[in-house]
Amino acid sequence: MEEERVDMEWCRWLPKIELHAHLNGSIRDSTLLELAKVLSDKNVIVFSDVEHVILKADRSLRECFTMFDLIHVLATDHKAITRIAKEAVEDFAAENVVYLELRTTPKKNDSIGMTKRSYVEAVIAGIESVETVKVEFIPSDENTKKPIKTLPIIDSYETKTKKIYVRLLLSIDRRETIAAALETVELASEMKDSGVIGIDLSGNPRIGDWFTVLPALKRAKELELPITLHCGEVPNKKEIQAMLEFCPQRIGHAVFLEDDEWKTLKSSYIPVEICLSSNVKTRCVPSYDDHHFIDLYNAKHPLVLCTDDPGMFSISLSREYYIAAKTFGRYILHSA
Ligand SMILES: CNc1ncnc2c1ncn2[C@@H]1O[C@H](COP(=O)(O)O)[C@@H](O)[C@H]1O
Ligand SMILES: [Zn+2]
Q1: Which residues are CB-contacts of 218 (< 8 A; sequence separation ≥ 6)?
Q2: R_g of the chain computed on alpha carbons
Q3: Which one from 233, 239, 261, 320 is the annotated catalytic residue?
Q4: Ligand 1: residues within 6 Å at CB?
Q5: How far is Cα 318 from Cα 13, in angstroms, rounded to an integer?
Q6: How far is the CA of 181 from the centre of ligand 1 (A)?
Q7: DSSP calls for 106-123
Q8: CA 222 / ligand 1 centre spacing (Å)
Q9: 3-state secondary structure of 100
Q10: Is 2 a catalytic residue?
Q11: Ligand found nearest the CA of 62
Q12: pLDDT at 22 over 70
């Protein structure tokens, strides 16, 4: 027990980077309950109907997407979006994350005057309102104040002074029309100087077809926007092969690859965002011991541990590091 406490403390202390975290999957339960209470007071929902859904500990992949539909009802307006973005950055900083790429699907809601752009602006307002830690969001030249497009250099001094670099990825939901997906890509390109650095393809992997939004992803390539794809979260050979052939800058999950696809992936060096607990909790992988992390790690394939949805799964990035060390420490091959 004492050993576990010390290890967890070390994993929390370790400066970390988070590259795969969905904004609406990173909401605190307490915030969701508060938002639900407000809507219940307005008779939009019945609080007792959603309370147990919010507090449920384990969710299958299907249940996750039902939960996301509920979250999208609860966190609809600009104010709520700003609040959850602020809290998400605070929570990642508290875990000693020094570089965070937060991803979110820009949403349009005519009834409240929300456009995809105003949605992203609400997210940015939240990131910029964080006070518990110094946030470096839009890199700008000290003299000219013009945005500079360099990657942050995170040195040990900065990690001591508690600073977090935050960047945004705009997500395309697999359910979206090609027009909506293209709108997101154009928006990401227009907001390149405002902290947006790329495009993600996510959403329920059993719904929609990535070939539908492929033209939008090709457009993103033309605009030189880096792309990350949710790939192989469920079995779908044709899609996995096509995604690897598309050669995105990164992929997330990579669970259901078969031998030939593992070969293609490893020879491509496409970095993989590893989401251990997300995969185990959604039962895409039977247990931590069975996770493909260790095979990729021992093959020296570029990878990064990520949370996916820390709010949805009640997890933290520090804990993911702890789980990886505990589960795989003994299997690591040490080259001479
Ligand atoms: C569990 N594995 C997953 N697989 C695929 N997509 C996922 C996901 N977890 C989250 N999302 C995607 O992120 C959205 C919520 O955040 P935003 O509203 O964009 O901030 C979900 O609706 C889904 O499209
Ligand atoms: Zn994800």
Answers
A1: none
A2: 20
A3: 233
A4: 22-25, 64, 68, 104-105, 171, 173, 202-203, 230, 233, 278, 282, 308-309
A5: 8
A6: 15
A7: ---BGGGTB-HHHHHHHH
A8: 25
A9: strand
A10: no
A11: 1
A12: yes
Q: How far is CA 14 from CA 4, 157, 237, 254, 303, in A?
A: 15, 14, 37, 26, 17
Q: Which residue has the tokens 């994993």?
A: 11
Segments of 240-307 assigned E as strands: 250-253, 272-274, 303-305
The pLDDT of residue 275 is 98
Q: Exposure string (b/e) for 176-194, b if CB count within 10 Å is 16 or more?
A: beeebbbbbbebbbebeee
The three-state secondary structure class of 48 is: helix
Distance separating alpha carbons of residues 324 and 289, to the nearest angstrom: 9
3 pLDDT more than 90 = no
Could you tell me the distance, in angstroms and rounded to a whole number, from the CA of residue 202 to the centre of ligand 1?
6
Q: Which residues are CB-neighbours of 255 under 8 A, at least 6 positions away?
A: 232, 233, 234, 279, 284, 285, 292
d(CA 272, CA 139): 26
Residue 291 CA to residue 282 CA, distance in Å, equals 13
pTM over the 0.80 mark: yes
> Mind spelling out the 3-state secondary structure of 216-242?
HHHHHHHCCCCEEEEECCCCCHHHHHH
Closest of 327, 336, 273, 280 to residue 301, by C-alpha: 273
The residue contributing the CA closest to ligand 1 atom 24 is 203
Between CA 268 and CA 333, with CA 290 as vertex, the angle to 5 degrees is: 65
**In the predicted model, is pLDDT for residue 159 greater than 60?**
no
- pLDDT tens digits, residue range 198-212? 999 999 999 998 999
Atom of ligand 1 nearest to the CA of 61: 1
State which amino acid sits at residue 241.
Answer: Q
Distance CA 294, CA 264 (A): 18
